[in-house]
Design brief:
Order of helices and strands: EHHEEHHEEHEHHHHHHHHHH
Helix content: 40-55%
Number of domains: 2
Radius of gyration: 21 Å
Shape: globular
Number of strands: 6
Structural class: alpha+beta
Number of helices: 15
Largest sheet: 4 strands, mixed
Length: 317
């Protein structure tokens, strides 16, 4: 099995209480069966508290969707009391993701995590990927499926090379990869209002997105007086790294789910939202405005299969 990773993957380490956000708020935390069995055997007052806060295979969330084992410093009490090995699978792996395409495994870090977004955006030069052998079991592919897999990955690699080529202007890169000329900046949508209508159809992940969407809507509705434009926060290198990474995460999944063009153009859709509405997305959140814009977009769009399907169908040709 070949394991492929973005070049910043191994640099990642949770920054815990130094994070301005926390992945222990706003998400349902499922507990796998093996970890539930461990928790059933924990003795003492902490064990009793553990079991009292588990219901139907997940933790009972506190008001504002806060994990009951997140302390006042945003540190995990399960980790503090029982160690890393006692964490459930989702807490151990998040924000990591993995996809398997036959004898190729690809790993990455979700951009809902501000440290992952920081590592991506602050990297020097074009985004690169490493490959190494690993002992994970591969998925069986017949010859026809393997050939299609190779064609999709070859096409994806051509996108990566174009976005990394310093001799090509950003405008030409966007045209070669996405067919995007910028004549209609919201292509393939007819207008910002059409794009806003699509965003409004998606279920919100929480109050932060509700506030951000309200700010975006207000700016779009006022656009007659002040036309929408790139707010200028993302450098060309940051833009190309972000576009490359989004293609890496989503494009090859067309092998399983279809919507090839929709999965490709999702990267352009995400980037356009991030650059046109950086301030509106980030709001008054502490920290880097670009990282906060990317983070909230990732939370809203990338972590719900129904939303991704809605967007990809809308973007598909």
């Amino acid at each position: 099995m070949i394991l492929r990773k973005p070049d910043f993957y191994d640099q990642f380490k949770c920054i815990a209480s130094r994070c301005s956000d926390t992945c222990c708020v706003g998400w349902e935390i499922d507990i796998d069966e093996a970890t539930q069995e461990v928790y059933r055997k924990v003795a003492g007052a902490f064990g009793e508290r553990l079991r009292a806060n588990i219901e139907d295979g997940h933790f009972k969330m506190l008001p504002h969707d806060r994990c009951p084992f997140l302390d006042k410093d945003n540190l995990c009490e399960v980790y503090q009391n029982l160690g890393e090995d006692a964490l459930c699978d989702i807490c151990t792996e998040h924000p990591r993701f993995v996809e398997v395409y036959g004898d190729i495994m690809e790993r990455g870090l979700g951009l809902c995590c501000e440290e992952a977004a920081r590592l991506l955006l602050e990297g020097e030069g074009p985004l690169a990927f490493t490959s190494e052998e690993c002992d994970e079991p591969e998925d069986e592919l017949d010859d026809d499926d393997r050939e299609v897999r190779n064609e999709v990955l070859y096409m994806r690699e051509s996108f990566f090379k174009t976005l990394a080529d310093s001799s090509i202007s950003l405008g030409n890169k966007l045209y070669q990869v996405f067919g995007y000329t910028g004549e209609n900046i919201f292509e393939p949508f007819e207008s910002a209002c059409a794009m806003l209508e699509l965003l409004g159809k998606a279920e919100s992940y929480g109050p932060d997105w509700d506030a951000a969407f309200a700010r975006i809507k207000a700016r779009v509705e006022a656009a007659d007086a002040k036309p929408l434009s790139d707010q200028g926060f993302f450098t060309e290198n940051e833009s190309c790294r972000l576009l490359t990474y989004l293609i890496y995460r989503h494009y090859a999944k067309c092998l399983f789910e279809g919507h090839e063009q929709g999965k490709l153009k999702f990267a352009l859709f995400f980037w356009n939202l991030a650059r046109f509405f950086t301030r509106e997305l980030a709001g008054n959140a502490p920290g880097d405005i670009k990282i906060n814009a990317v983070k909230i977009l990732s939370k809203q769009l990338e972590y719900c299969q129904e939303i991704m399907e809605l967007v990809e169908i809308s973007l598909d040709e």
